[in-house]
Design goal:
Distance between the termini: 147 Å
Oligomer: single chain
Strand order of the largest sheet: 1-2
Number of strands: 2
Order of helices and strands: EEHHHHHHH
Domain Zinc-ribbon: 7-29
Low-confidence stretches: 32-45, 47-70
Transmembrane segments: 83-100, 120-137, 149-172, 201-224
Structural class: mainly alpha
Number of helices: 7
Number of domains: 2
Strand content: under 5%
Protein name: Zinc-ribbon domain-containing protein
Pfam families: Zn_Ribbon_1
Mean pLDDT: 80
Keywords: Membrane, Transmembrane, Transmembrane helix
Length: 235
């Protein structure tokens, strides 16, 4: 004898057509017409299209989601070509930002207990600037040599910095060794060879200051020339 069946609207289980309470979930089914959703055992089972009859055992595929991609992370290596251009375009004033940037990276890398901003301000104070400059380059020298890399002499670079004023050469010499450290520490990160946004802003500010100062100096010279009186020559 073929037994008629139906699906429970609550749990989706197949149950006899003549029951009014689902034996699986215990829900009351008396209000549902028995003629609805019946089928024979020898007929292939088809899940009804009505959403109310969808089985809880049905599996779903999670749709793909577009998650925001993190911004590109670059290595801390500073290409010498870029460093040289920054020094030239800023008239050598980039050395102050260079000091601040390396002081900040030193603090982040080794949890140094110092203020990069305060240390940079001390660069403008005579004698103190030698102390803070030596402190920075010597700490970087220790970090670089701890990796087994060939590095510079902190004392010699400080003497050259003080006596010759060859700041370009000293900074490039130090940066080459710092770059070797970051290449070893961040081998898989790409090198940022173009100017960063901060560097572009810095260049723009310094160039604007240089232009303003130049205009003021030219104006002073012109005014001074116009106000100068020359003694009259009588024949």
């Amino acid at each position: 004898m073929i037994q008629e069946t139906k699906f429970c609207i609550y749990c989706g289980k197949k149950i006899p057509a003549d029951v009014s309470i689902c034996p699986y979930c215990g829900k009351q089914l008396s209000q549902i017409p028995e003629s609805q959703n019946t089928e024979q055992d020898n007929v292939q089972e088809n899940i009804p299209q009505n959403e109310a009859y969808v089985s809880k055992e049905r599996s779903y595929t999670t749709p793909e989601r577009n998650y925001p991609v993190n911004s590109q992370q670059y290595s801390n290596v500073l290409p010498i070509r870029r460093l040289l251009l920054l020094m030239i375009l800023t008239g050598g004033l980039y050395r102050f930002y260079w000091y601040y940037k390396n002081s900040k990276m030193l603090k982040q890398e080794f949890n140094e207990d110092h203020s990069p901003g305060l240390m940079t301000i001390l660069l403008f104070i005579p004698i103190a600037n030698w102390v803070v400059f030596y402190d920075l380059i010597d700490k970087w020298r220790n970090a670089i040599s701890s990796k087994g890399l060939e590095t510079y002499s902190s004392g010699i670079n400080l003497v050259i910095w003080i006596l010759t004023g060859m700041h370009f050469w000293v900074i490039i010499n130090i940066q080459e060794s710092i770059n070797e450290y970051w290449r070893l520490k961040q081998p898989n990160l790409p090198i940022h060879r173009n100017f960063t946004n901060n560097e572009k802003i810095l260049i723009g500010i310094i160039i604007a200051i240089i232009i303003v100062i130049s205009i003021i100096l030219v104006a002073i010279i012109i005014i001074a020339g116009m106000s100068t009186t020359y003694p009259s020559t009588y024949y």
